[in-house]
Amino acid sequence: MSRQTIKQSKRIVVKIGTNSLLDDNNQLNYRRIDRLAYVLSTLVQYKKEVILVTSGAIGVGCAQLNIAERPVAIPKQQAIASVGQVALMTVYDRFFGYYNQPVGQVLLTKDIIDFPESYINYQNSMNALLNNQIIPIINENDAVAVEEMDHHTRFGDNDTLSGMVARTTAADLLILLTDVDGFYSGNPQSDASAKRFKVLYEVTDELMEMAGDKGSTFSTGGMQTKLRAAKQLLIDQISTAIMSSHDPSDIFSLLDGYDIGTVFIPETKED
Ligand code: GLU
């Protein structure tokens, strides 16, 4: 089965989740962040346009402030995110800086899709960054984006956010890095017959149900939000890959067309 479409991707959004950024002791996993910075910087050298969507503001904030558990109170979470976001960007800036790759922070709220003026400003900003070979590093602005009772101001999870970013920047490919190496028909740890889907051309209700089954995913963001993002992007002719964050160098193999993770490809684009 051809992965030609994946190989031809020029504008690529990469999303990494909190679990992938922290080690077992909830401290930043420097090795992984370094590998990620190396891979993404190299892709820019190869003339790809790269956007990074990162989670971790709250997770890293908890680590910075020695807080063992994420507090329930929203204002506390906001304060923690505000601290964590700075720590997160400092680390990215240092590692990308090692590879001489400039990065820029872009913190989004739902305003950018609710207000046309904000949307245009966001697009101008993204285009200016990409045109200058700068990697935009995006997160939700968790210090101010709060879900209110009847007015939803948040994207909520970064699978959804990164899907929106891929769509609004007319990207070719969204890569969702996570703690499992693809989308499986069951839980590969307990079910020997569970199979990794390699290439999918549509996201059916049946697949959504499989993703909903807790046994089929170990990732906190959940497989369903990933599949929902992929489904939405297929409509816009954008491909999605779900793959392990274990070794970010696998992104090179993915882009070389090798059998990595699960890819969702718009059928019309395949030969
Ligand atoms: N914006 C959240 C954070 O940085 C992450 C949301 C998610 O995990 O999907 O902590």
UniProtKB/TrEMBL annotation:
The keyword Kinase applies. Coiled coil: none annotated. Pathway: Amino-acid biosynthesis; L-proline biosynthesis; L-glutamate 5-semialdehyde from L-glutamate: step 1/2. GO terms for cellular component: cytosol. One of its GO terms (biological process) is L-proline biosynthetic process. It catalyses: L-glutamate + ATP = L-glutamyl 5-phosphate + ADP. Keywords: Amino-acid biosynthesis, ATP-binding, Cytoplasm, Kinase, Nucleotide-binding, Proline biosynthesis, Transferase. ATP binds at K15, T178, D179, T220, G221, G222, M223, Q224, T225, K226. HAMAP family: ProB. PANTHER family: GLUTAMATE 5-KINASE, ISOPENTENYL PHOSPHATE KINASE. Catalyzes the transfer of a phosphate group to glutamate to form L-glutamate 5-phosphate. NCBIfam families: proB. This is Glutamate 5-kinase. It comes from Aerococcus suis.
